[in-house]
Design goal:
The complex is a heterodimer. Chain A is α+β, with helices and mostly antiparallel strands. Chain A has 2 domains: 44-92; 100-219, 2-Layer Sandwich (Alpha-Beta Plaits). Helices cover 47% and strands 20% of the residues of chain A. Classes of the chains: A alpha+beta, B alpha+beta. At the A-B interface, helix 2, helix 3, strand 1, helix 4 and strand 9 of A face helix 1, helix 2, helix 3, strand 1 and helix 4 of B.
């Protein structure tokens, strides 16, 4: 009799503890909702992104501060010099100047298979292929690129146009010679290492892909006209 | 004999409970951080994010203030010299084109969300596996005459690249998450026509289940490129004077 009573009491007490403890914890937290862990990762990513943007803006502010100091005592001749230097700098980044440096020359050509029953269009070069190769080269630090002498800037889109690719409003036939300025070894690895898109084009699709590291290549400037029809600068104030 | 069995059972259950609780605790801790509960952590992160965004706002204002002051000096010099005026305008044009100036204009906004997970799929489809379609969309926008493009308010420039980093897409060296918002300034009818075409990247992505909204807007603002760029290998070709 005693043993059952004691066991019964312990049993009831355990249940009571099991109810009270979670209730207490919930009260301490306040909110009952459980935030999915993926949201937390996304918010963390946003936080990191904003932090790095803030650092960059800080650097730009320092540059402008210095420039303001220069301008304060400047006369017209100095202003001209400062403006001309700024223009050259932006032209270098924007692709409007010829650039030279070490880099990689890459040639991509269709496979030389002739048409037969098994032929499908995977053995020719598509615009998506060039697009992915260009992206890979950028990730590997390419600072300037051209396809068959056409400088690639942010508005250069590589488009399929029947037997040719259309870049910067010009029709370019195969073979597609791509010049890229950067660290020659890193660029070469981005195309030739196992697992890269360049390797897949060679081994998986049978396209002819050849690359050559160079100490010195020259990439021409973007030479289409600069027409601005839709965008306006935003004059920001205090 | 019986008491040994029952004691053994109790010990086994306790060990199991202990292991389960420890694993659960560790999993949550590794994502959320020591001693935090997800709701709390999220609230703190959101607060930090709001603080950082307002700090970024203030810094951007300070930057444009400085630039306006610089502009004023340049303008004074322009009054005295037509050549300076020409240079100023030229500089502005190159800046807008290359992405170093905030711009606005008519254009289109494309919002992309991951497909909804229906319980029958074995794998969860996310934009991370299909990021080359984002590059295709940009290509279509450029061919249709886009003058400025941004993804999640990061300006697209000649140096912008896209990679996968863990569970996220990295663009301009920063992780971007869904919804992916692509904004473009340019001829809206052309955008709608090329992107609305059958088998356009948008069409293909919708087939895979992505939720895509395209809205045309009379005024879209696209921010400037905020990365600091230094050439390490390329240099301008020195011309012999």
């Amino acid at each position: 009799m005693n043993k059952y009573v004691i066991n019964g009491i312990i049993f009831i007490m355990c249940i009571a503890l099991g109810i009270i403890i979670p209730y207490q914890i919930r009260n301490n937290i306040g909110e009952n909702s459980y935030v999915p862990l993926s949201t937390i990762k996304e918010t963390q990513a946003e936080v990191n992104k904003t932090k790095s943007e803030i650092e960059n803006i800080q650097i730009l502010i320092n540059e402008q501060d210095k420039k303001l100091d220069q301008l304060k005592d400047a006369d017209t001749k100095d202003v001209v010099e400062i403006l001309e230097k700024d223009i050259e700098k932006i032209k270098n980044f924007g692709g409007f100047n010829d650039l030279e440096g070490p880099g990689l020359i890459l040639t991509i050509n269709d496979s030389d298979k002739k048409f037969n029953e098994e032929w499908d269009d995977s053995s020719i070069v598509h615009e998506g292929d060039i697009q992915n190769i260009i992206n890979d080269l950028k990730v590997a630090g390419a600072e300037a690129m051209s396809v068959r002498g056409e400088r690639l800037i942010h508005t250069s889109a590589v488009q399929c146009n029947g037997p040719v690719l259309r870049v910067n409003n010009k029709n370019l036939p195969a073979p597609f010679t791509i010049y890229a300025i950067g660290n020659p070894r890193k660029l070469s690895a981005a195309i030739n290492a196992p697992g890269t898109y360049g390797r897949y084009l060679k081994d998986g699709r049978g396209l002819r892909v050849e690359s050559e590291e160079r100490n010195y290549i020259v990439i021409p400037r973007y030479n289409n006209s600069l027409d601005i029809k839709y965008m306006q600068p935003v004059e920001e104030g205090e | 004999m019986k008491s040994w069995i029952s004691k053994g059972l109790i010990i086994a259950v306790c060990i199991l409970l202990g292991v389960i609780i420890a694993i659960q605790y560790k999993t949550v801790n590794s994502i959320v951080g020591q001693g935090f509960i997800p709701t709390q952590k999220n609230r703190e992160l959101v607060e930090e994010l709001t603080k950082l965004e307002s700090e970024k706002e203030t810094l951007m204002n300070e930057l444009t203030n400085l630039e306006n002051k610089v502009k004023k000096y340049e303008n004074e010099a322009s009054q005295e010299s037509d050549y300076v005026k020409e240079l100023s305008e030229s500089l502005l044009k190159y800046k807008m084109f290359a992405g170093y100036k905030k711009v606005e204009g008519p254009g289109i906004e494309i919002k992309i969300n991951n497909p909804e997970y229906n319980g029958e799929q074995t794998e969860y489809t996310t934009i991370v596996d299909y990021y080359s379609y984002l590059l295709d969309i940009i290509s279509y926008l450029n061919v249709s005459g886009a003058e400025a493009i941004s993804i999640n308010d990061l300006r697209y420039t000649s140096f912008s690249e896209m990679t996968i980093a863990g569970d996220n897409i990295n663009f301009n060296n920063k992780a971007i998450g869904v919804p992916i918002v692509i904004k473009a300034i340019g001829p809206v009818e052309n955008f709608e026509s090329t992107l609305g075409m059958s088998s356009s990247p948008i069409d293909l992505m919708e087939w895979y289940g992505f939720k895509i909204e395209m809205t045309k807007k009379d005024n879209i603002t696209i921010p400037r490129y905020t990365e600091i760029k230094e050439f390490k290998y390329a240099r301008p070709v020195s011309s012999e004077e």
